[in-house]
Amino acid sequence: MFDINKVRSDFPILGTAVYGKPLVYVDNAASTQKPQQVIDSITDLYSNHYANIHRGVHHLSQKSTALYEGARETVKNFINASKVEEIVFVRGTTEGVNLVASSYLEPLLEPGDEILISEMEHHSNIIPWQLTAERTGALLKIIPLLENGELDLSALPDLLSPKVKLVAVTHMSNSLGTINDVSLIIGQAHGLGIPVLIDGAQSIAHMPIDVQKLDCDFFVFSGHKIYGPTGIGALYAKENHLLNMKPYQGGGDMILNVSFEKTEFNDIPYKFEAGTPNIEGTIGMAAALDYVSELGIEAIDKYEQELLAYASKRFSEIEGLQIIGTAPNKGCIISFVLEGIHPHDVGTIMDMEGVAVRTGHHCTQPVMDYYNISATTRVSLSFYNTINEIDEITRAIAKVKELMG
Amino acid sequence: MSELRELYQEVILDHNKNPRNFKKLELHSHHANGHNPLCGDKLELFLDVVEGIIKDISFVGSGCAISTSSASLMTQFLKGKSIVETRHYFEDFHDLVTGKELDEEALEGLGKLAVFAGVQEFPARVKCASLSWHTLINALDSVDEPAATE
Fold first, then answer.
1. Which fold would CATH assign to domain A39-294?
2. What is the pLDDT along chain B (150 residues), one digit of tens a residue?
3. Is A216 tagged catalytic?
4. What is this model's ipTM?
5. CB spacing of A348 vs B125 below 8 angstroms
6. Minimum-distance CB partner of A348 among B41, B63, B122
7. Where do the H-state alpha helices sit in B25-125?
8. Chain B residue closest to A376 (CA)?
């Protein structure tokens, strides 16, 4: 059983008030709050172990290096990669996607080649491919959406062809909550020898991830969406891809030998980590992954699904409220529109009730275009939310209707 | 709730529900599109200016209550005003919603638009209130690109 009071007490910010009302934080798809364990890990690093990593022969440098490389091991275990060399630290999901676009895909592309993404992608899984396509003369192809927020995977066999050089899809939609059948996508793409990148920005915090079982070629996620610090994330890539990829950025730590005539690059994954990295972020992210592992991702998933079911039921009882994204397999995200009331007004009024929701297009403008709306109000839940909070949110929505009605 | 009542005053709610001058002007001398990419608010503004006076003004578009009512009240307010005055009112309105000190005369000059003083307590909403005004200035300057709220 999930001890919700114990869990909540781990997150100092959850005890704070907004405009005199207890904070109800349900903007978790944008970023999650941090447990004391993560905050302490960073304080401990700076108080006791900090120095620059690698190459330093002194005591502190070795301690910092051990913590930093230990974090890589933690990430590897969390997503069940087979080797630590397959984990590259990046600034976040966005940088991970850009790295794959620049270092893996771009050198392979010929004019007329295709990159297959989906209609529900976050802008960060659209623009890097668009830029790459523009530079190479490749084309962006789209797996279409269905009315309920699922992908129309019946279109997949027709979209996949030897022209497609990469498929990049989200595991879980940040605006609709839909969990995609990525195993099916990966299976079909691999049937034609096409590699697949999975955007795990949302899925990482809500369901068990096993990159070997998924057999994806690339998997990217951000630390701050799984209770860790901002500015850090990880790219998983199969070893054979990393070995063949060009460096991403040049700088210190990614080299073995440098002369003005020639540079010999470092081994993977260091070849992709130029410059002094985000040491505190990496260690903080590992502390966050340890925290989530301790709670158990299966237990988290089960509890969050209960919250989702209750919230979906309560919200759909509200007259004039329409949930956008009703796929049968969903993570704990509920986007909705209220008849005649703009999401920005909804967001401002709910905020005054202490409820932190996100309003807008959620960096998924093509999804908004599909539903012919400009914005939604999004409630994105976490394991630290409660049934009682969902009642509070429901009351806040009633207040919105009362004030704007 | 008092700040909310201050923001969503009756007159704002009324103009949101029943925006005035909400149509396209077939005959117009100036025209501009406004867009707030952050929230997707869009509006299109039409002006018929004759000898430096705004003879007619209208808008169409979709947005939140603050941006819609601001556009509606602005069109009502500016009809019959001169271009020179209008540019002054833009400055005064901008000061009003961003919480800058306004002297009594300027505040009085804004008439009904003073209801938007509540916006200064909500920094995230300043752009909603000022979108129509930025679009107006673009129309007068005859800039063809959509007005941004930056």
1. Aspartate Aminotransferase; domain 2 (3.40.640)
2. 577 888 899 999 999 999 999 999 999 999 999 998 777 789 999 999 999 999 999 999 999 999 999 999 999 999 999 999 999 999 999 999 999 988 999 999 999 999 999 999 898 899 999 999 999 999 999 754 566 554
3. no
4. 0.87
5. yes
6. B122
7. 65-78, 83-98, 104-109
8. B39
